[in-house]
Amino acid sequence: MLVSIESSLSHAASRNFPNAGFDKMLMQTHEARLTALRQELKGRNLDGFIIPISDEHMSEYVGAYAQRLAWLTGFGGSAGSAVVLANKAAIFVDGRYTVQVRDQVDEKLFEYRSVPKDTIGGWLADNAERGARIAYDPWLHTRKSIDAARKQLERAGVELVAVETNPIDSVWQDRPEPSAATAVVHDAALAGRSSSEKRSEIADWLKKTGHDAAVVSALDSIAWLLNIRGTDVDRTPVALSYVISHQDGTAEFFIAPEKVTPELTQHLGNAVTIRARDEFPDALAGLSGKRVSVDPDYGVDAIAQLLEGAGAEVSFNRDPTIVPKAVKNAVEQQGHRDAQARDGAAVARFLRWIEINAPSGEVDELTAAATLKAFREEHGDLRDLSFDTISAAGPHAALPHYRVDEDSNIAIPPSSIYLVDSGGQYRDGTTDITRTVWVGPGEPSREMIDRYTRVLKGHIAIDLAVFPEGTVGAQLDAFARQYLWQAGVDYAHGTGHGVGSFLSVHEGPQRIAKATSGQAGSDQELLAGMILSNEPGYYKPNGFGIRIENLVLTVKREIEGAEGDYFGFETLTFVPIDRRLVDKTMLSPEEIAWWNTYHSKVRDILAPQLLGEDLDWLERECAPL
């Protein structure tokens, strides 16, 4: 079947809503929306539909036009899926969203299912009738995920069907249009390498691996390859587009014409052909007889369908831009240092503000998040936040991925722990930092201090790690957890993720986490130039949460007599860590030395940017432990 990109990009008016009895007012309820979708499916002779949080690029954050799951269910998390049948439906989320999904999604409409224990294919095999036709939008799923679901469904006699147009788009009457913002040039003075150099590197990979072309569909990969940025997706500075990169170093760039400026055209030059975004499917069909590489994690099923339908040979390989993008060059490394320094001054001012104002009990989570953003804006060149700020008070801090909104917002309780995980997008770097602080009056409990100090010890262990060439992040993960394990506790998230350069705050393939079979990045060795977060934590359900996060740069270590190449980390984030939660007697002399050296650097970097009482506060917080 030839599938159309318009299924995901066109406005909801592509079909008229089939039942005039459902007007816009009635369609404000999730029950009405679910009923409307079921009527649409019935009219198409379909028995069910799978709805992911996804766009045509498998992005972590998606534009408003692609928020189909949120529109249908009310769920506001960044990862999840739902399945709708004629008489039942289910929503699938992982452990990060166990509480949130119950707050936002009506259990009378959707069963709550837990990933990875429950799978969409397994649920459908158990609940769909034999012979049922279950639909999916091939522009919103990878071939790998569809193949896995199809195997489970075939055993149950259930058929998986790709649709040409998304049925939700037919009933979502006021669906937003995709962003029309223009793409902008990311100057080589910030990128450190020209687009021509990068395209030549990809061309060399294509020749070496015997491919004629590679489809680059991940938005941050396109931004890196062409040295462009955009504002089409909140929190990630990318432009909606596709690229087909060829063996001769040329590329075809598919983007809506209204997003192209003369400056962009001049920047891209003659070797990059600019074509309308809706020409992308025909361009794929034009690769007949070619050997084409598609990324299995970012290339959607529709891309593979179109290539295979045209007679191209599809080879599933990691996007060839991903590792070069992850290895930051010297210019990008310095840009990160500069951005972190400005960002650190803003966060330090905020922490002093919290210390002064929060003990009153009159500061709520939303106000705190807005105040932190205001401090960042004062320190210059903030283009966006790098993700929605996790401003978590009291028991909310025990939810690692809590996101405050008007419904969940609470005042920061006096005599409690407050956790703030936040970051900014600057033209020279992307920041991500977590600080956990004690809000007075009074003193934290012995349990809080013990857990905080164990998290700190794990954080220091990662920062001081030295490891041989070929080490993967999973081999370092236990360094961060060991002190928590000694107390019989742990945390459920990874210890570190990759970070982009004025790009995605969650960038692969590098990561520090428990080894998980098949998990992207589990087998990626840590290379010099890769940036990661260092963020161990501890979370007591309904009690409190702790996380300490800095960003670190992977660097080569010179060791006298070393037999081979060894690596370690350079700290990039410099903001005081709350000493009120630290038990010095639990720290080794080496750990105390780390603390004092770190805070001496914090003072050196931030003091020139602070004045008056902010500077006095910094001096106090940076005094030796």
From TrEMBL:
Gene3D superfamilies: Creatinase/methionine aminopeptidase superfamily (3.90.230.10), Creatinase/prolidase N-terminal domain (3.40.350.10). Pfam families: Creatinase_N (PF01321), Creatinase_N_2 (PF16189), Peptidase_M24 (PF00557), Peptidase_M24_C (PF16188). Residues 336-554 form the Peptidase M24 domain. Residues 33-164 form the Creatinase N-terminal domain. The keyword Metal-binding applies. InterPro entries: Creatin/AminoP/Spt16_N, Creatinase/aminopeptidase-like, Creatinase_N, Pept_M24, Pept_M24B, Peptidase_M24_C, X-Pro_aminopeptidase_P. Keywords: Aminopeptidase, Hydrolase, Metal-binding, Protease. Coiled coil: none annotated. Residues 566-625 form the Peptidase M24 C-terminal domain. It comes from the Bacteria. GO terms for molecular function: metal ion binding; metalloaminopeptidase activity. GO terms for cellular component: cytoplasm. It is an enzyme of class 3 (hydrolase). Its EC number is 3.4.11.9. Belongs to the peptidase M24B family. This is Xaa-Pro aminopeptidase. The lineage of its organism: Bacteria, Pseudomonadati, Pseudomonadota, Alphaproteobacteria, Sphingomonadales.
